[in-house]
Fold these 2 entries.
Entry 1:
Amino acid sequence: MLEIKGVKKSYGEFQLDCSLNVEKGRITGLVGENGAGKSTLFKAVLGLISYDAGEIKILGKTQEELSEKEKEELGVVLAEAGFTGYLKGKDVEAVLARLYPKFEAEKFHQMCEEYQIPLNKFIKEYSTGMKAKLNLIIALTHQAEFLMLDEPTAGLDVGAREGMLDILREYMEEKPERSILISSHISSDLEHLCDDIYVIHKGKIVLHEEMDTILEKYAVLKVSEEQYRAMDKRYLLKERKDFFGIACLTNEKQYYMENYPKIVVESGSLDQVILMLTGGER
Ligand SMILES: Nc1ncnc2c1ncn2[C@@H]1O[C@H](COP(=O)(O)OP(=O)(O)OP(=O)(O)O)[C@@H](O)[C@H]1O
């Protein structure tokens, strides 16, 4: 669906240098702190900014090679973008109907009703959550096969975030060959949604792993200096000094549980893994 190979972009000190793949039928998450480069990567993929090196292919083609029909296969939500506040929800509907031959008016109405989007109000009067939901509904109601969602849950409370993740799960269940690329700086949103995770830090991908593998095989080992000296370090990805000794990130927790039963093993949530990868010493 999407292939990003060695894409580079510099903004002064900041340097993006990324490769990433989104496979058909999978939800791929891009997680990283504020300023890590998520939006820059999305903008490069969508042709909204130029990049200095590398190659991007969507549906096997470059941006320029994509036909209008193929572009309709893409559903996009960009951070801080949307329709002007001086339109009402129902005006958006009219624009979409002109823009997309495959626009699904009935589904649009159904979703707006279900998610309590007032079509007769001006968008500038919408809450942050309403705007975010409207943006997602727009991306979902023209039979797009590939969704690219940059921080679609930004500014939403926990309940609204869960609601939005449910919408995405339903979208995938309708047609399993669809794909989603979704970014967030909130790892718990992605942990329960994605098949594949990329962690971006200061413009670089520091981890690419299947979500199930992270949950099954990753862990943080809490060891004393003495335990650390004696242990096999082959499967340690990163270490960090802690108040109790040393915290070590491993992707082979079973090995350490079997061979070092006295070591404290904290099963790695995505948050813990990210913290270790982006804040550790090695
Ligand atoms: N047009 C621009 N001109 C100069 N610097 C830019 C520009 N756009 C982005 N940057 C810089 O590039 C870096 C990455 O920004 P980007 O918006 O991609 O991060 P992000 O991961 O999306 O962050 P957030 O979660 O806060 O949205 C930042 O240091 C930012 O200041």
Entry 2:
Amino acid sequence: MIKIVLVRHGQSEYNEQNRFTGWTDVDLTERGKEEARKAGAILRQNKFVFDIACTSVLKRAIRTLWIMQDEMGLLWIPTDKTWRLNERHYGALQGLNKEETARKYGEEQVHLWRRSVSVRPPALDKSDPRYEGTDPKYKAIADRVPVTENLDDTEERVLAYWREKVEPSLHENRRVLLVAHGNTIRALVRYLDDIPGDGIATLNIPTGTPLVYELDDDLKPIRHYYLEEDERKVHSDAEAAAGAPDVRSE
Ligand SMILES: O=C(O)[C@@H](CO)OP(=O)(O)O
């Protein structure tokens, strides 16, 4: 049985302030750190062990992974950090308050910017101080740093990483822990579960909650479930298949 565990980072400062985040490199809140600790603890209690970990180059995901690894006694495992697992780029919306933006542009427009797979938020101007293209962290991709993305754009780069790094590891029986972001995980779920069109629009990924995918030898999903600390509640596949949105994320 091949398994991979996907975890969205714990609550971030911008999650708490209800701001569009994207590639903005904000840290975890105290609650977010506690969520990460609990995610590591529930995995340890359920005897999950990992051979490798992968995450984005954004500190809210990296710190979540560190806290989880510490909790599991796995700080030593090889870790790959890649911009391809960064959150979807939110363009010129990055840093703005979501509620204020909805008042200004309307709920419908903001919903499209947030959940349409094809609509891109307004692009960030390259002269804007928020533009990440000059950040040394992105030196290797300076000519490709996005100024906005829709979910399709995000999925393309996430899948490039999945095919190049994750699939070969899984085929070699390495147990992979992937700590990333709401929309990079939504893109992966859309691909793994072959969700057509805008079907992913109602699915939200909760912060700091391990999502376990069991895969067959062709890496096709057999089932998936969340591991939760409280009652170690396992969300039923029926619930997931019905597209029940998990709205505990923010
Ligand atoms: O702000 C963001 O980058 C994401 C995740 O927090 O928000 P949304 O839920 O709108 O995709």
